[in-house]
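dumping the sequnces here before i forget
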Amino acid sequence: MKSTPISDAQLVNNYINGQESALSVLINRHQQRLYGFIFSKIQNRDATEDVFQDTFIKVIRTLKRGSYNEQGKFLPWVMRIAHNLIIDYFRKNNRMPKFNNRGDFDIFDVLSDGTASIESQIVNGQIANHLRVLLEELPSEQKTVIKMRMYQDLSFKDISEQTGVSINTALGRMRYGLINLRKMIDKHNISLTN
Amino acid sequence: MAQLYTENPLNSEQLIPRNETIRFLLDYSKALYVVEIDSQKLDCLLN
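..and the predicted 3d for all of it:
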């Protein structure tokens, strides 16, 4: 014996009366047609997924609120909701242009997560090495002050106490040390920028 | 001789929504209920 499928109207009625499984049947019955309709207009899988979801959210809310007009047929009504949401989608997209990652331009080439790339890390490492070599060429008093200040992060007060000189002397050694470093960099034409 | 044609259409990808979307809709439907207060209908979601 062949059983006749339950009509949309009956399923809608069952759903309104609290039978949740009726919704699953309705979605299953019409998903391909509705999804295909949306995709034919939008031509984008992710956006189609969003519009499909929003369509059924609207359907669910209308049915649960008891605002559904039984005079119309279910599928044309759902299609009309989808049609309106597609129009909303294009309106919104015209106001907010979006970047697709299909062409030559990729937005992720421009955006950064704030961390240094591997290349930057290597270049920074090389710069630090060059600087250490240049530091060794400085007079020992200047080298000591710069190392204590830059590598050990000591204050000039601490440096003056540990080296047994006044703060002004420590500041002076730092200043001349940096001037000498710049001279060496210029002389050897070294680039210390990333 | 190698098979030169197939019964499968070139674009065999079915245009249907993802399973997650369907699952979300069914869960949303189960969670949603409408409360009527002073002739106003309010949507509520169960946690």
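Residues 5 and 14 of chain B are 20 Å apart (CA to CA).
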